Amino acid sequence: MSTTLLQSDLPGLPLRHRGKVRDVFDLPRERLPADAPPGDYLLMVATDRLSAFDVVLPDPIPGKGEMLCQVSNFWFKKTEHLMPNHLTGIDVAAVLPEGVDTALYAKRAVVTRKLKPVPVEAIARGYLIGSGWKDYQRTGKVSGIELPDGLRQAEKLAEPIFTPSTKAAVGDHDENIDFDAMVKTVGAELAERVRDATLRIYRFAADFAAERGILLADTKFEFGTDADGRLYIMDEMLTPDSSRYWPADQYEVGTSPPSYDKQFVRDYLETLDWGKTAPGPRLPQDVIDRTRAKYAEALQRLAGISID
Fold first, then answer.
1. Residue 218 pLDDT
2. Running DSSP on this structure, what letter comes out for residue 296?
3. Which of 140, 170, 171, 257 is the most core-located residue (most Cβ within 10 A)?
């Protein structure tokens, strides 16, 4: 089993951001290979932290960071013909400070381009579930997009839809917005590029997953631009944390299908008298084990990669 990493500490590398799951470090030029192209670089580390209801929980899921990183890398490679991504191909071991356990970071860290993030979450939905289902029940719309009457929970939409949301800080909640609000935030040209890329990648990934007996209900992407305005997909891609994957053989309209993610954790937390604010409660070992198994199954079925 992988060594668990709750928090990464890398002496000599400036910590840029510590998110719910990922720790991001600036990479000084002297740490890069001599042949690295000009530009700024980051080291992104996927830890084993787990968040639920926007709260980071005290118990990690062993190996989760490695699984997330490998799923992302698989999809970045699989979709590079559709959209450039932030990966550089620089070996993680070459940039780690001396004395750091290289094996601990080899499968959970990547060296990336430093990009200017687009300040909106890009979400594609192919099925009516989650916050989209709640919005539809209340208004008949999702992010301002009018949908037919009479749709049921988890129903497949006639066409995938793009439903952006705000990008909240750790501990805050993202909020669905309509496309016009996104245009006001980032401009029409960039908003259209992000929307088109999001739907293009979603369709490709949904078809790929369906061939493996998995339904991709929805997913969230993050994009960034370089100094020349070129658009890249960044952060994580089509992981069980950023996406809702369902086993096709357990899908049923009118229900909330089981998913390859932290649903075991959410279900357990819903049984507690907890206000969904920090600090989060401890998790029983069986919930941790079952959650880890779900992440491992998704990695195996999608990418053909097995975790010890």
1. 98
2. H
3. 257
Cα–Cα distance between 281 and 261 in angstroms, integer?
19
All residues at 6 or more sequence positions from 284 whose CB lies less than 8 Å from its CB, including other chains: 268
Distance CA 76, CA 90 (A): 15
| Helix (H) / strand (E) containing 197 | helix 188-210
Q: Is the peptide bond before 97 cis (omega within 30 degrees of 0)?
A: no
Give Cα 226 to chain centroid, integer Å: 21
* Domain range summary for the chain, segments of one domain joined by +: 15-114, 117-261
pTM: 0.94
* One-letter amino acid for residue 186 of the chain: V
The residue to which tokens 């699984």 are assigned: 67
Q: Are strands 243-247 and 156-162 parallel, antiparallel or unpaired?
A: unpaired
Q: What pLDDT, on the 0 to 100 scale, is given for residue 168? A: 65
CATH superfamily name and code, 117-261:
ATP-grasp fold, B domain (3.30.470.20)
